[in-house]
Amino acid sequence: MPAPMSAGGQARPGFHAGFPARRAGPEVLPLGPALAHALAWQAVGLGLLVLHVLLVRETGPAAAVLALGGLALLYALLPLAGLVVFWQMALYQNAAVAFFSDGMSPGAYQVLLGTGFLAAGLLGGLATLRILFARPAAAPAARRIALLACAAIGVSTAYAAYGATLSSPASAAVYLRAATGMLLMLLVGLDLGRLWGFRAVAIGYLVSLLAGLCYSALEVADPAWFYEAAGNLPFMNLKYGPAEQDWPFHTARDLIATRTSVLFNVTGSETSLMSFRFGGPNIHPVSYAYVIAMGGIAALGLRWRWSIVPVALLLAAIGVKGAMLAFVSTLGFWALWQWTGWPRLMLAGMAAFVVAYATAVILVGLGSGDFHVIGLIGGFEGFLRNPLGHGIGVGGNLSDAARAGIDMAELQNSGAEFGLESAIGVLLYQLGLGLLAHFVAFGALLAAARPRNGWRHARPRDTDAIFIGAAMTMVNGLFQEEAYTTYALGAALLFAGTLVANRPER
C-alpha cells in the first residue's frame, strides 16, 4: 500500500499503514479498498478478541498484558488498523465474554471488563506523544485541544486518587473511566487526523458495526433461544450477582422481562405501546443505541443519506430516548442549515431547543420521579455543598457505597444527595469546579469547527453534522450517564478530532 504523502507529494519515510492514506484535505478514498481493509482488520480483531477472552479465563489476569501490548504495538505501527481492532474490543468484548462466561471466575470477568479502558488509555497515550512530538506536526488547533484534553484527564486522575481514599480503588476506577474515556477518544482522533481523514476513520467504525447488527437480528428474532445460546444469562449474573444477590437471572424469561418496557421507557408513562430493548453485542440497550446513533451521524458525514431511514427504525425499535434525540436533532439542525443557508439561525435554534428541552425534562421529571432528573439535581446540590468536588468514585449509583445501600424507590420520594444517572450530575458532584477542565476542552473542540471567515457566509458541509452531533450528545449528558461513554460522546469526539486535525480551509 502507498505510504502517506507529504504536502509536496513525496512519501513520508517511516510510515507504512494498512489503509490507503492522504495528507490533510478534502480526501476521497476509494470505497472498495477502504471497506476491504476495514473488513480484514475486523476479522483479525474479532479473532484476537476471542483468543484474549479465552486466555484470561483459562490462565488468569496476566494474559491481558499480551492483548494490551499487542494492541499498543499495532496502533504504534498501523494506527488505522489499530483503531479498527480497538473497536472490536470495545463493541464485542461483552458478547465474547458472555459466550465463554460459563465457569468464568468473577476475577477474570472484572479483568476483562477493565481491559477496554486500559486499551483506550494506551491508545490515548500514544496518540498524545505523536500529536506533540511526531512529524508531520499536528495543526496548532489540534495541539491546543490535545493539551486541554490532557489537562482534563490529569485533573480527573488527581480526583480519582483522592476519591479512592474516601471510597475504594474499584469505585474510583469505574468513574475514572466514565470521566476520561471520551477524552481519550478525542486524542486518538486528533492523532489520526494528522495524516488520515474522516472518511477512513468513519468507514472503519461503520464496518465494525456489521457483525453487531447480525448479532442483534438473532437476538430480536428469538430472544429466549439466543440468550441461552449466547451465554447472556451467566454474563448478567456475573455482572449483577455480587451487588444484587437477591436478583439473579434464572431463565431467559427473566432477562426478556427486564428488556421489555413502555416505549422509550418514559417514567410514569401510561401508554400501552411496548418495546423490546435489545442489548446487541454490548449487552446494554442504552450503550448499543448510542453505537447505532453515532454510526448514523458518521454516515451523514459520509453523505450516505440512504442510511437515515434504517438508523431511525433501529433507534425506534430499541427505544432509547437519548440516542434517538441525538440522532434526530443532529439531522434536523444540519438539514435546517442546508435548507436555509443561515448558520446563525441554526445556532440560535440549537440554543433555544436546548433550553426548552432541559426545562421540559426537568419539570416533567420532577413530577414523575425520573431518576435522571433526580440525579442531575442531586449532583448540583452536592456541588453547592462542596464546590471543590467530593472525589471521583464517591457517590454515583455505580460506586461501592451506593450499590450497597441505595434504595431507588426511596430516592423517588426524597431525592438524591449525590449525582446519579446523569453524566453531568455525577461529574459535577465528583469533580466540582474541576469539571471546568472538561468543558474548556469541549468548547475548544467545538470552537475549532468555526469557519475561517466566520459564520455569516459559511455554507454547510456534510461533515458539519459531526460537530452538531457532538454538541447534542454533550447536552444529553444532563439526563443520561451513558451519553459520555466511549460508545457515545467518545465516538463523536473521535470523529470531530479527526476533522479538526485534517480539515481544509473553507
UniProtKB/TrEMBL annotation:
Give the protein name, as stated in the record.
Uncharacterized protein
Keywords from UniProt, A to Z, are: Membrane, Transmembrane, Transmembrane helix
Q: Which residues cross the membrane?
A: 34-56, 63-87, 107-133, 145-162, 174-193, 200-218, 286-304, 311-339, 345-366, 426-449, 484-501
